[in-house]
Structure formats: structure tokens, C-alpha cells
Amino acid sequence: MTIAEIFNNLNYGPAPEAAELAQAWLEAHQGSFGIYIGGEFRASHSGGQFETDCPATGEPLAKIALGGPEDVDAAVKAARAAQPNWESLGGHGRAKVLYALARQVQKHSRLLAVLETLDNGKPIRETRDIDVPLVARHFYHHAGWAQIFETEFSGYRPVGVCGQIIPWNFPLLMLAWKIAPALAAGNTVVLKPAEFTSLTALCFAELCDAAGVPPGVVNIVTGEGETGRLIVEHPGIDKIAFTGSTEVGRLIRKATAGTGKKLSLELGGKSPFIVFEDADLDSAVEGLVDAIWFNQGQVCCAGSRLLVQESCAERFLSKLKDRMATLRMGDPLDKAVDIGAIIAPVQLERIAGLVEQSRNEGAEVYQAPCEIPARGWFYPPTLLSNVSPASTAAQVEIFGPVLAAMTFRTPAEAVALANNTVYGLAASVWSENLSLALDVAGQVKSGTVWVNSTNLFDAASGFGGYRESGFGREGGSEGLLEYLVFDRLGSSPRKPAPKPSKREPTSPPGIDRTYKLYIGGKQVRPDQGFSLEVVGSSGRRLGEVSRANRKDVRNAVEAARNAQPGWAAQTGHARAQVLYYLAENLSARGAQFAELLAAMSGSGFADGEREVGLCVERLFECAAWADKYDGRVHGTAFRGITYTLNEPVGVIAATCPDGPGLLPLVATLGVCMAMGNACVVAPSETTPLAAAEFIQVLETSDVPAGVVNLLTGLQSELRKTLAEHDGVDAMWHFGDAEGGRQVELLSVGNLKQTWLGPSKSHDWSERPWSASKEFLRHATQVKNVWAPLGE
Ligand code: NAP
Ligand code: MG
């Protein structure tokens, strides 16, 4: 044999990782596992069990307790009992425990990696080099947050008992993403792993004991979908954190609506992988292999849609096919295997079915010439080309090793195609022209964008979705906030109130007027011409406001949608100038507003004057933040920059509470404007005159048409249309609990973000306004951009 022949035939020999350690661990438990509650393992109340299998062999691995209502209840009770002490342990105390957990994970990394590969079927290369190290990193990072908790999160408190439900694709990593922030913030948890993959969660429970996690702080209830539902619906739970399908996410949104439970949803995706002609095509091919064949494509942020520039498409696809031919599929415990097994037969059938459907819809199917192992559940890496943008292959999350390829000609077309799905989890952009890549990164609607890279994760950078990929983030300070509630008692010291003026109202407020609506920069009569009488505290008729109906709402939302992109494109500095101008014009007419407020509330001119003063202060504060609420650059464990953009949410609708007639309106529109949103606001239903009068201030302050729209009327009518409207990206409700429940329930269509914000007068009238950060946060959504440096 010549040396050339040896080189050509350099075949891989088997390089299996030893499974003994994990086998011994399974045997030590006699292949049977209980539920972990209050620091102890116990059988399920019903005695029921289910089996977990090894996807690479189809063989059973162990029997796991099936959690039912009694078990969930016991776990919630244990978590509740443990929470106060865990919180009062303080930041440093919790940091020490989280640090110990990180160390435990590192010390047992080999056991965890092998166990994960056995139970899930993913290659050991991935569990060993990616999943488990990221788990340890997550606990380290959150030990740090716990340490600085009191100073960095002053004013916030833990939400309480958290129900956490995770999928099977990254069993231990998703557990870490859930448990680390919850514990750092002082919460206790009840976590349900996915039915297919409970083993590493149970092993983790043992590590909790070893790390000195107090009993009841972490509870693991194994079970099926029904067990998850029981957790979601348990009244003793304060927050649900869910990762899984959009379908189940929708059910959970519905089930938690109006219950007061905090919610974060990390759902599905159909993420674009965009390759420009000037990209380094060989690197892009490697990136794509990682994007779509990492974890057999069973990745929520998988780059499952290849968008490649037409001019280089043929060359790129041919390189890709060459690379596909070198992928090795087989025993996931083999260290030289790239592609492991699919989680279960049901998923295998679903993948195969979707590929067949795509073929019937005209897609060309190319599959890597891999040898398919005789046993276990395997599916070869697959490339679908000749795919049209509306077809199944381009729209449906396949959640398997299947790539759909499409072409584009211009950057604008690439962006349009990229955004042409209901999802918005991640995107990858490839070009050697960094300014082009960063420009495209800014236009793609997704929670993460990777530039010339893919699948980069780190605890310092929040991960989560836009649109139907869910809401909330995991990682970073934004991830920690998902486990906290704002508590005004923890706020900063107050300034003295301004000195009230001696003046009392000299005359009743002006001539009786009928105020119009304010839509698209114009004062308009309501669609049906109806109005509502406003009666002052003295019982005297003060005037009339228009009663907006569904059609007026739609016009207002349309005006806001049209105006928002242009407004967002202005600089923060330019937006601040408009806000300062609003403050100036309001101040100039302060006495008139104070009189109107006093007549409505009956509490005197001085109170009215004070409210106007606070409105002016708010507008100044919003103007100040407009160019200062900036993103950050994260310290990820990665050579490059990972930066956060605080982007506007889009169109925000809000309903103001009864009580102060102007302050909630001004605070709301101020913060929306500051962050580049357009808004549709319904002022207080009972005291709307000052708000209606404020239209005149808006008209004279250079506010672009459509950026602010005001609709007076009956909130019960307006709320429904706004909450259901697909053109509204977020809805804020400041008011009664029933209204809040409706908002959450009706928002399920486009899964708009909802916020049941402050409803009491004093929440608005504090000085300084300690809630301002909360408003800023709700007026923005975080996008993380990853850009490597150098070669
Ligand atoms: P899934 O069916 O939604 O299951 C997720 C979890 O929810 C499992 O623990 C499941 O339990 C449980 N569950 C099922 N029905 C439930 C119900 N009615 N109430 C409460 N819990 C319920 O999703 P999957 O098929 O396991 O996972 C794949 C999906 O997760 C994909 O769509 C993927 O994109 C998404 N994902 C998203 C992210 C992200 O960060 N955005 C990360 C990973 C995965 P059982 O397993 O016992 O049925
Ligand atoms: Mg399994």
C-alpha cells in the first residue's frame, strides 16, 4: 500500500467513550427512579412509572416515577416552605451554593455527558464539549448575580415558587438555564423534565444534595405532558418558565391568563442562515453544518432555512453536498461521530413525513450518503432545494436534520425572506462585508443574530424569541429579571414634593367642549359620532369626550404601524428633543391643565398643579433616557463582541387607570416615544378631559403624525379590540384585575407581550420615579448580536 493510498483510505476506527460510569450509576439505582421532593427521592403517589429509552439502540434504560396531582402538590408545598429561608440567606449565601453546584457539575461532567448521550442520543462530542461545560458556566455566572444581587436589583424581590417545564433536546442545559437564575434571585423551583429525558435531571438532584442546596429549594417532578399541565395550573405557583413547542406555549398562555402568574415562553423557530456572495463560502459551509446538523437539527434555533445569494448558490450547494458526504452518523458514544440518533420513533416519523410532503410540493431532496445503523432511530442529513417561500419546507419547524434552501438577489430580499415566518428566535448572517452583515443583523426580527458564526450561547447573553418564538429571555441580567418582581418599597429615597402654589381656581374650566379623538396626527370625530359626558366631582357637567369604537381602534393602530418605523429610525437625541418640547408646551399651559384636573377630581388646584409638575418631570426623564437606555456588550466566553440592542417593541397599546387624569397617560406615551415605539393610548375612562386637552399639546410639539394616538371611550370596548389586534405588538393594562385577565387571554392570537403595570395612583406619583426602569424595559425588547473578531 502506498502512502497516498493510506491517506486516501484514512478510515475512522471506532472510538467509543466508556459507558461504564453511567451504567454503574443506573445500576446503583436498580434502574428505577423516584421523584425528588424536599431533598428526598420518593415513589410517585400513584406508584405509576414510565420507561426511558436509549434512542441509539431502542433499548430501555430505566423506569421513572410518573408524577400526578399529589406529587405536584407536595413539590409545590416543599418549595413554598423552603422559599423564605432561601431568600433570607442573602446574595452571598446563595452565591456560595450556586458556586458549589457549578463545581459539582464540573466534577461529574463525564458521568453527566455519558448519561445525556445515552438518554437523548446526541453525540458525546456535543454533550462533553458543549452541553455540560455550558451548564457549569451557567451556574458560575449566576453565582455572580446572586453575589451582587442586593446592589444591582434594588427594588426587586424574588417572584416566589417557580414552575419550570423543559424539553428533551438539551435536557441538562435547559435545566441549568431555568434553575440557575431562579435560585440566584431567591426563588425555589418545581421542575419537570421531558418524558424522554429525565435522567440527567435526577442525577442533578443528587448533585444538589452534595452542593448543600437546602431541601425544598429544588424539586424535580418527573412525568408526562399532563404532569406539566398540573404544574402550570397549580395555584401555589407564582411563575411559569416554559421551553417547548409554540403549540403548548399557547395553551400555557391561556391557562395562566388572569391568574397573576408571571410567564416566560421559549418556543419554536425557523431560523434563517443567510449567505452573501462575498462570504467566505468554506467557513459558511462549516457554519451551516453546525447550524442545522448540531444535535440532529433538534435545536429550537437551528438554521433550518438556508438563504443563499443567487450568484453563488450553485457553488455553495455543491460545496455543501461535498461536505455532507463526509458526515459520520452512528453510535453517539463514538467520539468521532457527527450525527447521533433522533429522540424517538414519533419524531422520526414526523421528520420523514414532512420531507415527503415537501417532495410532493416540488422540493428536490438530497440526502447524505451515510450508512444508517441497523438499530436505533436515525435519519440522514437532508437538503431540500427548489423550495418556495410559502411551502411546508420553508414554513414548518421540522425539528430534525433537514435544511430547506432558497435563493435571493439583494440584501433587501434576503431580509424579507428571513422575516417571512411567524417565528423570530435566531438568525445567522454570512458576509466578509461587516457593515452589510451588521446592517442585515439589525433588520432581521429575532432575539439573537450571529454574524459569520452560529449557535453561540453564553450565560451572559440573554436568549429568547421575538414574535411566536415566545417572550422573555434566559441568560444575562434580562434573564434574571424574569425571576423577579418589582417592589416599590425597595426604591430609592424620595425628593420633597414641589411647593404648592397659593392659587385656587378662579373660574370654572372654560366653555363646555366636545373633544375629538387623535388619530394619525389629526383630530377626528369618532366613527359613529357618539360621545360620553364627563361629570366633575361636584356633579357638574364638565364637557364631552368622543366614544371610540372598533373602527377607530383599527384606524389608530394602522396610523401607529405606519409611523413607527420612521420614528424608530430617528436617533435617541432627536426623539428626546420632541419630548423636551412636549414638556415645555405642557408647562406653558400648566394652569389650565391644573384647573381641569382639579375640576375632575375635586381635590383642589394645588393637587392639579402638582400632577402637571410631575408630568413635566416625567417627560424630562423620558427625554433623558431616550439616548441613554442603551444596550451593553456582554462578557461572553468568546473572542469577539456580543452586543445587546434595546429595540422598540413596535406598536404599544395601553389603557390608563382611573385616578390621576394626566400622569399615567404622559408617563406611558413618554416612555413609548423615548424608545422608538408608536402608541395607541386610552386615557382614564372616568377623568379623560385633561388627556383630551393634551391633544393640543401633542399637535404643537413636532410629534410626527401617528406616533401617539389617543382614544377616549369605554375601556371595556377598546381593550378587547386592542388586545385582539394583530397589529399591536404589546398591550399594557393599568387597571382592574378582570381587565388584565381579558388582556392576557385575548392576546393569545399573535402572542403579543402583555404587561399589567401599576394601577394605584401612588405608583405614578412617586418622586423620583422608581418605576421608570420597569417602563423602559417593557417599552423595549432585547436583541443580542454576536460578531467574532479576526480570522
Ligand atoms: P413540547 O411538546 O412543547 O414539550 C415541552 C415540555 O412541555 C415537555 O416537558 C412536555 O412534557 C411538556 N408538556 C407537554 N404538554 C404540556 C401541557 N399541556 N402543559 C404543560 N406542559 C406540557 O415540546 P418538545 O417537542 O418536547 O420540544 C420541542 C420544541 O421545543 C420545539 O418546538 C423547539 O423549538 C422548542 N424549543 C425551544 C427552545 C427555546 O429556547 N426557545 C429550546 C429548546 C426547544 P413531555 O415531554 O413529558 O410530553
Ligand atoms: Mg430517553
Distinctive features:
globular; 43% helix; 791 residues; binds NADP nicotinamide-adenine-dinucleotide phosphate; single chain; binds magnesium ion; alpha/beta; 28 helices; ten-stranded mixed sheet; six-stranded mixed sheet
In short:
With 791 residues, this protein is an alpha/beta fold.
Query: What bound compounds does this protein have?
Result: NADP nicotinamide-adenine-dinucleotide phosphate, magnesium ion
Question: What gyration radius follows from the Cα positions, in whole Å?
Answer: 28 Å
Weakly predicted, low-confidence segments: 490-497, 504-508
Q: Mean pLDDT score, rounded?
A: 94
End-to-end distance: 38 Å
| Major sheet attributes | 10 strands, mixed
User: Helicity range of the residues?
Assistant: 40-55%
Instruction: Give the spatial strand order of the biggest sheet.
Output: 14-15-16-13-12-17-18-33-27-26
β-strand percent reads 15-25%
What class do helices, strands and sheet pairing give? alpha/beta
Count all strands and give the number.
Answer: 33
Helical run tally: 28
Global outline: globular
